[in-house]
Every structure is written in C-alpha cells, then in structure tokens.
Amino acid sequence: MAAGDMHAVDALIGERMGSPVPLIPELARYIIEAGGKRIRPLITVAAARMLGYEGKAHVSLAAAVEFIHTATLLHDDVVDESDLRRGRTPANRVWGNAQSVLVGDFLFARAFMLMVDAGSMDALHVLSRAAAVIAEGEVHQLVAAGNIATGRAEYMDIIGAKTAALFSAAAQVSPIVAGRPEREEQALETYGRELGLAFQLVDDALDYGGLTADLGKNTGDDFREGKVTLPVVLALQAASGEERAFWEAVMARKEQEATSFERAVAILKAHGALEATLAAARSHAQTAKDALAIFPRNPWRDALEQLAEFVVERAY
Amino acid sequence: MAAGDMHAVDALIGERMGSPVPLIPELARYIIEAGGKRIRPLITVAAARMLGYEGKAHVSLAAAVEFIHTATLLHDDVVDESDLRRGRTPANRVWGNAQSVLVGDFLFARAFMLMVDAGSMDALHVLSRAAAVIAEGEVHQLVAAGNIATGRAEYMDIIGAKTAALFSAAAQVSPIVAGRPEREEQALETYGRELGLAFQLVDDALDYGGLTADLGKNTGDDFREGKVTLPVVLALQAASGEERAFWEAVMARKEQEATSFERAVAILKAHGALEATLAAARSHAQTAKDALAIFPRNPWRDALEQLAEFVVERAY
C-alpha cells in the first residue's frame, strides 16, 4: 500500500546520491542498497498518509531520514573498526576510512538539501536536532564501551539518543508538514521513539542470536566491539563472581578467545537476559502502538501498528 | 570594528559546542580554540554590516559557517592520517579517529540547528549545498592524491569545491538574510569564491615555506600526504625527466626520504612555482576586491577589501 510513495522515496534517494565524482555514488550505493529495510522512511510516509497529507514534502523528508541513517552507518563503520558488520565487509574495509567519512558527510549534507526542498523550517529543526543527538549518543556509547558498570538507565539513554532520536524525528516531521495539532505531533513523536527503542533492543538480542540462538554471520558485532548492551547489563546484574570476571575480561580488556562469544551467549541464556531484553522490546513496541490510539483507524494507521509488530517479530 | 559581532559569534560558538557528554566540548574546544583566524565567519559578519543589515541572523550563520569548517577539519585529520597537521597533534591522534568523526558530525548537525535559528530557508539552501560540494571536493582530492597527471584546471576545480565553496556561501548568506537584490548576492558570492581560491593557493605555497622558504613546523603536510597542489602542478609542467621521476616517486609511490621535502622545495623554487602560485593567488584576491565595487564605500567594505589583502600578505 505504501509502495507508491516508497518507490518515489527510492527514486529520490537514487537521484540525490549522484555526483560527478564517481566514487561517491559507488560507495553510497554499496551501503544504501545493502538490503536496508527502509523502516525509518516508511514511518514518515505512513504517518503522513495516515494524517491525510496530500503534499509531497513527506517524500523528501523520508529520503532525508534515510540519508542521515546511511551517513551514520558509514561513520559507524569507521568507529567500530570491524572486519565484518551486519554480515558483510564494511564500506571502510572496501574503500578506506577516509572515503567512508567523506561520503557520509556528503550524504549528510544532501539530507539537509532534501529538507530544504521539503520547505518546512520546523521539520528542519526536528531533524537537525535529531542529528546532533545521534552524534551525542554515539559518543556516549563510545565512552561507555567496555564499562561493565553501565546501568540500565544509562544504556536506555544511549539508545534513546543513538537510535530512537531518528525514529522519533522520522515520525514527528509528518504531522509538522501536514499542519496537524501539537497533540498529534506528540503522539507520533512517542510512537517513533518507542518503536526505535524496541528496534534497538531487538537488534541487541539478535546480536547474540536471539531466542533461537542462531549464531549466524550477523551475530557478535556488539560483543567484539565491547558494547555493553542491555542483555549484558542484565546478565551482569545477576552475575556470579566468575561471570563478572568473564565480562570484565572480554568487555573491558577485550580479552576475547575463539570460544568467548559462545560462553557469553550461554551466560546470557542462563540468566534469561535475552528473553528479558525482548520483553522490554515488546513493551516499548506496545507503547508505540498505544500512542496511535488517538488517530482514527485507517489502513495507514494499521501499517504503523504492523510495523511495531514486525520490529519485534524479527526476533522470533 | 567587527569586534562586537565577532565577540557574539564566539560566544555563540562556545555555547553551541556544549553537550552533556563531556568529551564533545573538550574535543571541540581543542580544535575551535586552536588559534583559528575565524576568517569565514568574519566574511559573513562584515558582508551583513556592509549591507546595513540590522538583524541578528548573521551571527547565527557566521557561527554555523565556523562549525562546518571545524567539522571539516576534524574529518580531514582522519582522512590525512598525519602525526602533525597545522603545526600540532591532530585531534584524532589525541582522542582517536572515532571520536573525531563523531564530534565532527555533532558540530555539523549543530551548524544546521544554528541555520534554523537564523530562519532563512534560502540561506539553508546555500549552506547545505556548500557542505555537499565540500565533501565532493574532498573526495575528488582524495582520488587525485598521488596522481601527477592532475592538471591546473582539475586542481582549481578541487579547491573551488573543498575550500572556496564555503567562503562563497559565507559571503552569499548575508545579502540573502538582508533581503538584497540578486545582483548583490552574486557579487558577494564572487567575492567569497575568489577570496577562497586566493586563500587556498596561499596555503599551498606556505606548505612549501612560501617565498621566504621558512620551513617551520607548519610545512610539508601536503607533501607528506601526496597532495598534488598547484605548486607541484606547475613544477611538473616544466619538469626535466629526472624531476618527473622524483615527483612520481614521492607523490605517486610515497617514497619519501629525509631529504625529499627539501629537494621538492628546491625544485619548486628553481621553476618559480611558488611565485607563480602566489601570483595566481594575488589575481584571485584582486578579483574578489573588484567584486565589491558595486557597493558604496563604507568601513565594512574596507574591511572586506583588507581581508582580501591580508589573505595574500600572509605569504610575504
């Protein structure tokens, strides 16, 4: 149902990643076409349509949101220094750190040009603030990496900034361009933020194989990078002395051996940390759905509800 | 004379680099307070005042321009991978690549928040386009690094994008917020672009010690990084076979020995390449000054003219 608008978003993305410097679209395409689910622009599109918006600004804003996300992914690859991320060779390992940084900058700038096209200063305010908050969250996570004293509240702050801020902005810009009242803007801001938190917590659980413990090629990124995500925070709360020493070694000192990751998964499972993380994700997804209750039911509202279900169902 | 406005710009810069994540202002301060000459924001301020602008948007835009410049410097350090740049340890060698990338992103996002404060969609258009062009120019220079076939026209394209685009945007936003006619906007856009080209060419000559051949701690960055700048382009046009082999070795293959830099300087001097580069800089600075002729003479116009003179005089 969203196919028409999302096709327009994809076309715009393809057009705006263009440059006379061939390396730019080449590298941008590598990451943009890496099978991204386009969840963030879908939120913008579906929210705009749910509100009966008839203009075209939502398409530009949706593309801008995806560009911000893509720029963040490119810069994350430089930050994380892994040989494998999200199951494939990161762009910086193919083209180099410098190239990834600069193409990220290019996409970031193009995102703002798309926002200018959309023509709403209020939407620009929301998205530029989100971009600053994302960077703050990333720096916060970097500082917290390897710190096994990271608590649940601090971790939720980090992902509220690094992940949920963009989901929330993606949802909030639609009522803004549609000229809807403050109450609806707040409801969609809540929807986006809670959906973003749910999305990140599911990602965190999946990085340890989720409930099926399917340790495929997409797992272990966070562990290798020493990121103290919610599963680890929860396992640490219930840890024996020996387990605490293990987390200290693999996270704080990055003393990781061939069997370390499997042991980490076993400890997480023993304490039910993945189930508890997914339970938290379900709770945030439910809050996201509840926030939509003020809107009259229509197929677009249904789509947003289904998105909240899909985000959690990925884990099962 | 510009002191009042520039003080306001500095205060705004100090305020907007703030963050609850302490590493951010710490790292940002390292680079922002590194004795930057604030040339770009000075252009915005002086141009606005020359036009009789009485509002406050120029202060926000000037700070935004400096933040874009600072973000670019932070990301350049990651790109260039030197142990010493601009005569000091680059931020990424003090805090790490990841930190420099993310704080650059933060400042970039904050730049756009400042533009939103200024409230002009047209200024946002000009500055977001400039940011994209800068990234394109940086990628272009990266691709051209070590390529001794880089010609003069291609090199001028590169610096037109990586350096002059921001100078030009810094000048152009002032007539925009002051609501001045297209003709004045074009004149200031020309002023900024030509000043930016002059500035970069002087930098290029100074990186080889300029006319005084003062090979202090601020020299040799471009050489070490294999950047084929205008002095090298000009020396290559007049190169003997042996000299061409030298440039091929030190630039394309980065085979640099302890004496390579001194030899490079000697070759540049033998061909008058530094003089020719500075002559080109003077010509661009003159074109910049000429572009101001349509404006009535006042102290602010004088300041912009003096800035064009200062930019070139640095080399003597």
TrEMBL record, chains A, B:
The record's section on Gene3D superfamilies has: Farnesyl Diphosphate Synthase
Q: Which cofactors is this protein said to need?
A: Mg(2+)
Q: Which reaction does it catalyse?
A: 5 isopentenyl diphosphate + (2E,6E)-farnesyl diphosphate = all-trans-octaprenyl diphosphate + 5 diphosphate
Could you tell me the keywords of this UniProt record? Magnesium, Metal-binding, Transferase
Q: Which CDD domains match?
A: Trans_IPPS_HT
Q: Tell me a GO biological process for this protein.
A: isoprenoid biosynthetic process
Q: Which Pfam families match?
A: polyprenyl_synt
| Enzyme class, spelled out | transferase
What does the record give as EC number?
Answer: 2.5.1.90
Alphabetized GO MF terms: all-trans-octaprenyl-diphosphate synthase activity; metal ion binding
Q: What does this protein do?
A: Supplies octaprenyl diphosphate, the precursor for the side chain of the isoprenoid quinones ubiquinone and menaquinone.
Q: Which family does it belong to?
A: Belongs to the FPP/GGPP synthase family.
Q: What is this protein called?
A: Octaprenyl diphosphate synthase
